[in-house]
Amino acid sequence: MADKHTQGYNADDLKVLEGLEAVRVRPGMYIGSTGVKGLHHILWEIVDNSIDEAANGYADEITVILHADGSASVEDNGRGMPTDINTKTGMSGVQLIFTKLHAGGKFDSGNYAFSGGLHGVGASVTNALSKWLKVEVYRGTVFKMGFTSSFDKKQNKWLCGIPDGELVNTGEKTRKKGTKVRFMPDEQVFETVEWNYDTVAKRLKELAFLNKGVRINFSDEREMYRTEEVATEDGEIVSKKIKLPDREPVSYRYEGGLVDFVNYLNEDASPLYAKPLYYSAVKDIHIKGAPAGKIKVEFAISHTKGDEENLYSFVNNISTVEGGYHEAGFHSGLLKAVNDYARASGVLKSKDLPFVADDVKEGLTAVLTVQLNNVEFEGQTKTKLGNPEAKAPVEQAVAEGLALLMGQRANRAVFDEIAKKAKFAADDRIKHRAERDVAKAASDNDGLNLIGKLAPCSGKNPDLNELFIVEGDSAGGTAKQARVRQFQSILPLRGKPLNVQKKSALQALQNEEIKTLVSAIGAGFNRTFEVEKTRYKKVIILSDADQDGMHIRCILLTFFFKYMRDLIASGYVYIGMPPLYKVYKKDVAEYAYDDKELDEKIKKVGKGYSLQRYKGLGEMSAEQLWETTMNPATRNLIQVTLEDVSEAARMIEMLMGDKVEGRKQFLAENADFNKVDGFIERVNTERRESQTGDEV
Ligand code: 2B7
Asked: Phi and psi at residue 170, in whole multiples of 5°?
């Protein structure tokens, strides 16, 4: 069962693969892959050593060069790798560093308090996977050593990272200090040995942000070409190599570190306050049965006016895209601090529930970096911190840091903005939950049973079904008698519905009439509205032909416009037109819908006619209402469309909004309310729709 493949390494393997050959044989185990990522990994192993030297205060400048021959070099101005002889092995420090695998990470020498790096496999892995590698150490004089890898045909094995000779002190005097390493990745190992400029530049810039004050220089000395198809004089197409312009060397150095990083991330966003908040602390790590450790926590926080969260987190300078325990600690520390501030400052009243994590994440741009030993990376791409012990100290550091910052007078306005923003997010969250609840109730079948006032139709086909929203209980009663139950639903409205223009979505939903309407249509509300789910493809507003009726119509249209706009856009909203007059004689009756039509109808009925003027829907019998207003074969419907959404919105704002002045003036100028209906100017009148009744 347990063969070599499933079990991987065992003790025997370890014996056989003693030196750096192990790395050659299974490069993936040490650098993840032999693709372009693995290639760059061997560069990062070297860069990480320079970064460690800098992060611990011994170096402040690092230079990375991609050379024309395909090799890469890294130089720092630190203390220089140890050149003396290690008594146990009789080897120089330099030789040890490049020829011995350091299982489980960096030397346990207590050399550095914290050290970066992904696997910490070290410089020897880079050496093992390079055709050659050269080191120079500057310590008063220049020390040099070289290594080469080759395949030995006689022995049929790799000789890798073999010293060309001992470390030599050239005696050449130098004012420089530090280390320089140059190496040539072996094309026999890697699928590609072409460095990616952008990958290197991005990472070096990131490292410069993460290590404030450290200057990182980067040059690409390779000659770059592009090929182009050109026609020769004979008309032959040949490809031609065209040299691209040289890349200018770049230099990254950020005195502000993480604060500069956050500002850089926010470059195109509008920040909520001018300066990011910054804090750093070293905390104890506690694990049962293990010696106490330390964790360094550092973060910079800002907020934008937008609502997305951008948290960039790092562990030992490695980006943790998948998050992990440090991010969890960060979020709970931030939540605690913002909740405390919001309570103390009165943004959260005693009746208010505390914020939840999502509330304080809105618009957050932050960088969090932690450094600890024995890290465990998990997740799909191994970019998730799997050390649970990291959570508590990060939470503590973040909460304590923010508490300290909010105690400073100068930060008052900043925290006020943060608390207000979180309150806004919380209100929005609560509001939308209510919307979802109503939408859900509406989509549940039981939802309908709760709607006492609706007389639902029995049919289930939205293409055929009609919803009549009828002004007044008595007209509603008549409509219920008049309707064809299979496809016509009646929703009577008692009095005037809520004018939603002046109300928030949540307030609107607290209104019984609106709740009923939302439930009846069954397609959600506001952001959750999905027109495909509508139970009715005809929603017909039936109100009296007077001022009040006009007002109700406006209120309902405002509602649909604001919260179910697609219902109008899809052409599902209609205005029912009851007649104004009945002209009749013995067994003939004609209805007139306006004054002009009245003259025609009088002529048609002839001498001896009687005239009835309807003041409201309630004055009609069920038969009359059916014939004049509800029967698809004989009724008048006006389809409301949105030809100009912004114009309609402006008009509705004027008619229904807060500013009384504009409305008064508009009504004065348009006293004839047929014109006031002008706000439904984009109306298609389908007089006497030639519908022959819906088949149910
Ligand atoms: C963990 C090992 C690899 N090391 C030292 C000292 C300085 C030093 C280094 C380095 C990469 C390319 C240029 C310590 C640390 C070995 O022990 S590695 N500088 N730079 C480096 O590799 N850059 C050191 C204590 C006293 N003196 C020197």
From this structure: -70, -15
